[in-house]
Amino acid sequence: MTQYLYESASFKGLLVSQSVSSDLINIALDRVEGFAFEKFAQDFFSVLDGRKFQPLGGVCDGGADGVYRTERETTYYQITRQENHREKIRKTIERLREFGRDVNSLIYVTARSIPHIDKEEDELTDKYNIRIRIRDRRYISSHINDAAGTIHAFNEYLEPYTRFLLSLQSQGDKFITSPHVKDPSAFVFLQHELSQKSGDTKLIHSLADTMILWALSETDPDKGILMTKQDICKKIFEHFPWVEKVLKVHIQPRLDFLRGQSKEERRIRWYKKQQSYCLPHETRTAIATESAQDESLRLKVLDELRLIASNIFDSDDGDYDILANSALNVVNMIFEKQGLLFSHFISSKADSEPPLVVADCIDDVLTNLCSSKDSVKTEQFRECLESMMREVFYNSTPSVRQYLNNLSRTYVLLFSLQAEPRVVEFFSNMSANFRLFLGSDILVKAISERYLEPEDQAARNLLKIAVKSGIELYLSECVLEEIYTHMKATYWEFHNHFKEMEQYMKREIVRNSDKILIRSYFYAREEGKVKSWKSYIEQFVSFDALAKDTGLDEIRRYLVSEYRLKFIPNLELESVCNNAKVQTLATRMIDEGIKEHQSLAYNTALQIHGVYGMRNKHGEVSGVSELGYRTWWMTNQTRVLKITNEIVAEHGTEYTMRPEFLLNFIALSPSCDAVRNSFKNIFPTVFGIQLGHRLKNDVFHGVLDKVNTWRDYEEGRITALMSQMCDDLKTNRVKHYDNNLS
């Protein structure tokens, strides 16, 4: 199976995506050489620590590889991938002192993992009377995606040490399986999405209502504290950026619903003069009652955790408070890192193991908590937390079980709305893996959006985000000719039917034109953004060149430059196609009335067979990736689909990708960092628990039941199913999306 993964270059998406996979970081740090790691770390900390960090030259600078100076102290950096960190730190301190350095603080940077860092730091600090801090592999991994600069440092110095993954066939028994196959998140999400022909409207409305009421929680009519719709949207989307894609089009309708037609229906109050909203007293009371119940449960769980801690660890109340809250933080972190497996474990009646990340989560919580505590206390806390988590998992009280179940429901709600880090990373990796031929409908629409406001440029924004995501966008010669033919036809239609009557044209008449560029011209002229048809056309091609039929290459240059496309000539597509099959399909298009001209029919047939040919050329058919096929024709043109069923059956999958797939799952998707931050904003709060109440039982159990399906399969079967589900989702034309390109 791994052979297929590598032959299909499925890991390339991981290598070029905006965020870096933790698996790739570990692989790179395990293989990186000393000099490359030193250069990486200097660039990495230049970004993290800012302008006060200064790279140094190692031996000639007394063994230091960097320095950070403030008015209070000077901190030196030692960067290495060598073993024996204690000995290396000792020698570095001695060397710096030999060079006359006044050393009062040292940061030791290593490509290795150092166990019990807090204990090591404390012991070394006491031994040398210097403040020692260790930044190991886990620290680098947790901060690699903090900024564009840290990602650039990885791509510049570490990424070359992962390129063997793209060509590796096998190394004895060392096969590498995609992390998306080893975790059920992406598998279950794909199944869930394919089972939904449209979004869960009731869930989305309930979520929107909850978010609106939360946003209005600090309003007070007596104090004149009101919020406009814009204020409400800003507050919601800044705190929970993942919901913008889901809720943006629903906010106004739900505001209208919540303000009601009668006093009995009214949950929010509307002030027409101020165009603003606030919460009435009765809504405040209802929210307070629900919040009190959830907060009471949380406090009860904390009391029970304190009791568990007191039975394990002999200390004072202050430590029991710390341990109880730390246990809840561990739970929250597990949901962030392996939430689906954790939710399944909580709800499962059969014996099963908790997620593997529990120990790592305990370490992370202790690292944040005990940086200033002595190492003995830290080890005591670690042992106590491990015992407490075992009690929580296997001997929990009804209150703890209810609390965990509430959090599980919140997690599954976020999961079903794509607000889950592993799911976001999966689609991010997929996007960087794409080779997409653009349909003429997409590019003509992008041209027509020239004078729209930036937020309304749906096609242009989609293409920009696609490029930023690492997608390879192709303009084939056959599509270029179709675009050029469309523009010539538009030119002559305007010349023959609109030119003489231009000054009398009203919007009601213009909107009946079937030429989108004519409509967009008149709308732009009406708004004073363009003066004449000639000046409009010359935004894309010389007016005279279009009139004289000499503007084809000029259009090509514009499209390639403006939208960052790669031009693919027909000769390249013809070299990977069976010409007889192309001609047969072209003839059938003419016979069926799908195309009127032989040249356009040939171009469309060549594009269809070219997609399959390019898949073969790039080895996509010889292997299998859980991300599905890479090469597609992205278009909303559907007329030709009805006569290509036999071709699709021959190749086993379709050739067109629906643009709405890219729009909804990639272009409008939040970043992994935004989703992780949302987890941190939601899970520790009563509001997070309240979100879970909005999830229907059938959705909750349906998602978790799919984990059992994943568990039953071998990795090879999971990979094959994920590949098929990805391609089915890309081509699904029945599914309804709130966000559409049209």
Automatic annotation (TrEMBL):
Spell out the protein name for this chain: Uncharacterized protein
